[in-house]
Design goal:
Strand content: 15-25%
Number of helices: 8
Structural class: alpha+beta
Distance between the termini: 58 Å
Radius of gyration: 25 Å
Number of domains: 2
């Protein structure tokens, strides 16, 4: 009994730093261990978190009706609140890992920022865990974020109607949960019903706005590798031999690395896109040149390329252009629904001197 009492008192005293450390550790753990959105274990992991969150939202308000105290470690209500916070942190960190991998951060940062904000709120606004509306808002966002990539994995399709179906199923799920919750805490739910409805509607409208303005990462797709190369050739092992100019670690800090083109020779845009098993699709390589006079990006060509789902390292493919004009270029790697997976940026410099090239294998 003594060790349990000691641990309980220790956690009660250092609750905030322990909680913060556990959430950071959990995020690192997820980043290292979560691999694919289409595996059974990852989805059981998420579903288990959602189930536990639903149970403890109900327990917290049942206990609160009985005079629970979320500040006293000797009370069960204190532990219910901390367990709920922990599992919210776990599921939100999982989403951050998956969505960040799927995103071109320069385009889809608003949705990533929404998840980051929810993650921070989960840690910083602990006292709001006694407020039903705050819990339901986070819960609905968690359900919706899960459905956005689970439904395409199950149906082996992506597109507007699949996204809309994800939202519809999320609304059904949260409605069923609220009906169950209403059965147990009728008085409190009645008081918060209007606010909860408004928050759910607000989240639903916001996520749809972000999707139809192409600001949500195209999950369950993700970029595994990409680059701009001087040559690409398939070898006898089925991999690709590529050549590139090695700028070392300084190259990571150059948004538009120089590409030295000799006599209009080819420029290759390579991409390896992960797609879940049986989700085959077409991606686009959109070649754009920045017009300094008009000060805008001009689309020079759009090339369609197939992607076959299931390969861990992503399905490898490439497009090629010759005789590119000098200046800034980018190749937007996109879905047919115009969702940006990533962008390759480079600066064409015309030269008569052959650059020193390094060979790699992709």
């Amino acid at each position: 009994m003594f060790p349990i009492k000691y641990i309980r008192n220790f956690y009660g005293k250092f609750e905030r730093p322990i909680s913060s450390l556990s959430l950071v550790a959990g995020f690192v753990f997820d980043a290292l261990t979560l691999k694919r959105v289409d595996t059974l274990w990852e989805n059981i992991w998420i579903f288990g978190h959602l189930f536990i969150i639903g149970v403890f939202i109900t327990l917290i308000h049942l206990r609160e009706n009985e005079g629970g105290n979320e500040k006293n470690p000797k009370k069960a209500h204190f532990w219910y609140v901390n367990i709920l916070q922990f599992f919210f942190g776990g599921i939100l960190s999982t989403y951050l890992v998956f969505y960040f991998r799927s995103a071109d951060i320069f385009v889809t940062w608003p949705f990533i920022a929404l998840l980051v904000g929810a993650f921070i709120a989960n840690e910083s606004l602990k006292r709001h865990y006694i407020r039903l509306s705050f819990q339901i808002s986070l819960f609905f966002l968690s359900i919706y974020s899960f459905a956005i990539f689970l439904v395409p994995v199950v149906l082996h399709k992506i597109g507007d109607w699949v996204f809309l179906l994800s939202g519809f199923l999320s609304l059904i799920f949260i409605f069923i949960f609220l009906k169950i919750l209403f059965y147990f805490i009728k008085d409190k739910f009645t008081e918060s019903k209007r606010l909860i409805t408004s928050l759910i509607a607000g989240i639903f409208i916001l996520v749809n706005f972000l999707y139809f303005t192409n600001l949500i990462p195209p999950i369950p797709l993700s970029l595994k590798d990409a680059g701009v190369y001087y040559s690409i050739q398939k070898n006898i092992e089925g991999n690709y031999d590529v050549t590139y100019e090695d700028y070392g670690w300084k190259g990571y800090f150059n948004l538009y690395p120089n590409f030295k083109q000799v006599g209009g020779e080819p420029v290759y845009a390579f991409s390896a896109i992960f797609s879940p098993r049986n989700l085959n699709l077409t991606i686009l390589h959109e070649w754009q040149h920045y017009d300094e006079i008009q000060q805008k990006w001009i689309t020079e060509r759009v090339i369609s390329l197939p992607v076959i789902g299931g390969r861990d390292g992503g399905f490898r493919t490439y497009s090629m252009r010759t005789n590119l004009a000098s200046g800034k270029w980018r190749v937007n790697i996109k879905t047919e629904q115009d969702q940006n997976i990533s962008s390759l940026r480079f600066n064409i410099i015309q030269t008569n001197i052959e650059p020193t090239l390094t060979m790699g294998v992709k």
